[in-house]
Amino acid sequence: MEILEIMKYTIPALLVLAATYLLMRYTREQDLRLKSAEIKQMTQPIVLPMRFQAYERVVLLLERISPSSLILRVNQPGMDSIGLQKAMLGSIREEYDHNLSQQVYISIKAWDVVLNAKEEMIRLVNVSASEIADESPSMELAQRIFEHYLKSEKPLVSNAIEILKRELAQLF
């Protein structure tokens, strides 16, 4: 009989305790969601322009490492192919290193595409340089780079720029 009396008071108390716990947990989660949304809304005017600028800078990086821009920028009169190769590789790495921090503001997928485009350009320069003599004029290397670049169906540099544009369009 005593057990029945104890259970008569204990079971309702446990049910009230469980209901209180669940209600408090739900309320706390709602408060966290509201605060998170409020913080996101407050930081949006600050973060959005920074993200927009990051996309601009990454597109500029890609444009600067594209073959036409890169060759025009680094080729010097009287330069041989090995000199052009070194200058191009140095410029690609410098551009990339200068914009490394932009990966914080763009998606992982977009940054992977940018990284792949950079690696493709390095490979393109090295493969083209391996097909000609080191002492050849720089214009011979430039021509070989353009030939390889135009043969590729969808160059990663152009593809990366398209992906970045689509991703940026989704932000607005």
How many helix segments? 6
Determine the mean pLDDT. 91
Cα-based radius of gyration, to the nearest Å: 29 Å
In percent, how much strand structure appears in the residues?
Answer: under 5%
Classify the helix fraction into a percent range: over 70%
Task: Please count the beta strands (DSSP E, at least 2 residues each).
Answer: 0
Biggest beta-sheet profile: none
Backbone structural class:
mainly alpha
* Helix-strand string: HHHHHH
Q: State the shape.
A: rod-shaped
**Terminal Cα span:** 70 Å
Poorly predicted segments:
none
Jot down its keywords.
172 residues; mainly alpha; 83% helix; rod-shaped
Can you describe what's shown?
- This protein has helices at 2-65, 67-74, 81-98, 108-130, 138-151, 156-171.
- It contains six helices and no strands.
- It is an all-alpha fold and 172 residues long.
- 83% of the residues lie in helices and 0% in strands.
Write the SSE topology.
Blueprint: H1 2-65, H2 67-74, H3 81-98, H4 108-130, H5 138-151, H6 156-171
Helix pairs in contact: 1-6, 3-4, 3-5, 4-5, 4-6
Structure at a glance:
This protein is mainly α. The chain contains six helices and no strands. The protein is 83% helix and 0% strand.
